[in-house]
Amino acid sequence: MDGRNTPGSDGSEAGADGRTSAVRRVGGRLVPGPVRRSYALKFAVAMAVVILVITAVGVGSYVQIRGIIEDDAENTLQSTAALQADSVSEWMSGMQAQVRGFAGTDAYATGDPERIDEALSASAAQASADVAGIHYVDADGRIAASTVADLEGSEVDTSRPEWAGPIATARNGSGDEWRVGVSDRAYESNGRLLMAFAGRVRVGEGVLVVVGDVRSDFEQLHRSRSIVRTQLLDPEGRNVFASRRSGPSALAETAAFERAVAGEPATRERASDVVAFAPVRATPWVVATEAPKSQLYQASETVGRNVVVLVAASVTTLAVVGFVLGRGTVVPLIRLRRRAEAMEDGDLDVDLSTTREDEIGRLFVAFDGMREALRAQIRESEAARERAERSRAALERQNERLDQFASTVSHDLRNPLNVASGHLQLIERKLDDLDEEVDEALAPHVEKVDTAHARIEEIVGDVLTLARQGRDIEETQTVDLATVARDAWATVDSDGATLSVPGTRTLAADPDRLRQAFENLFRNAVEHGPPDDAGDGDLTVTVELTADGFAVADDGTGVPPDAVDEVFEYGHTTDADGTGFGLAIVETVVEAHGWSVAVDTDYDDGARFVVSGVFDGSGDDSEA
User: What is the DSSP letter of 535?
Assistant: First the structure.
């Protein structure tokens, strides 16, 4: 028997192992490698997923339940308003029906006071409980008979002016038209809130007035409750059942109220409450039912508190689980992190020894190896820094020597130049004493010597400028680009050319050195333009803003394509009278500011030099 069962048993175990391996392969493809290799990440991800699931379920349930509760509360409020509107409509219809029924009695046509009194008494006995009184008003506006003894024989205008409107409405009917006039608002008498309904008697000029007690049937419409407040409003927004005349309600200015006046139920949600509107059939009135949100949506707040409690309980439970599991896993990682932070602060002698052979133990070993590598890198960095310091000091000394050399050369060359210029001036004066033939023979040579002296002076000045302008700029000022450009243009012999600065922007620069760069760019433009076929003064030089700097463009002869790579080199010039240092000085000044300058090879209308890296894009500078 064992022999027969063993193969089957082995087959079942092999199948289970195969399925497990398949699940692991699928899980390995879905789970990222770092999570698979780190228990701490697995633990953190698992805790985060559980928290997110619980939170999502709680929030989703809360949102759904809250929506259902709020919708149900609003529907209930709307139903309340509709029920109140139906109740008012039915009461109005009942009162109007009683007016019609009582006004059809033949006794009013006889004009006999006794029969009229009997008819009023009979009508009062048949009237509903909310009828406060029945009155007969003759054609002269006198209350000829009444179930209220105090009113009988008095004038309507003096004793009951509230009836004037309904009586006028009832009498305005002509022919077979029969109307029931209704008070536009309730009035208070002897502690009772009343409304008058008036209709013409079937025969005669008299009017029957039936007065209804509003308060007995519609207590909720004129008294505020703790939760719901209901009002009956006319089209202007005034409270119909208010005992005192008041101004229009703020609700009358809402679109929902206008829809209700037009016959459509509506709801409006305000900051602190919700209002439901319902039209009253066969009247222009609207019932407005208000309820505060704090009470109307109280159930949703309870659900929200329960969700918070549920999430808090879940997080607390996960914290306990995390504490228990973290003692054996996460805590050692925290210790390692603290030691790594100590290493980051410069303490490379922290204890990284461990007896563990698992992943955490290998991590300690890896950090120990990293510390040794870090020590080696620090030693190399310190050596490199010392070399850089020595190089910087040497460069500073070299710059100082270069500046001193340039000043010395300038001084030593200018002294003999000044002597030579003095002797040249003496020769020019002596030439004036010689005969004209000798003067004409020697004057060209003297002029060439004078030109050579001027050229040497210009070269010496440019060399000195190059030596000094190449220093790094340590302090800058906030300057206006257009102002510096125009100041530089004023020092240049423009030869009739025109400067255009369409826009400006502030920038941080050394104003003197920036002005010198502009001067050399302007001189370069003037010296190489306009084209031969253009007249004097036709050259225009434009200083314009770019995305991160500015450009100086002209409509002159432009830069030859084969000279683009050489224009900034020392001594390069295409002008026989030029020194070749102008654009070199421009590049020196620009690079001293940390910017860069280049020729725009896509510009076909002349020459255009673009200075980039001036603005960092922070938006601190303002464009005019």
Answer: P
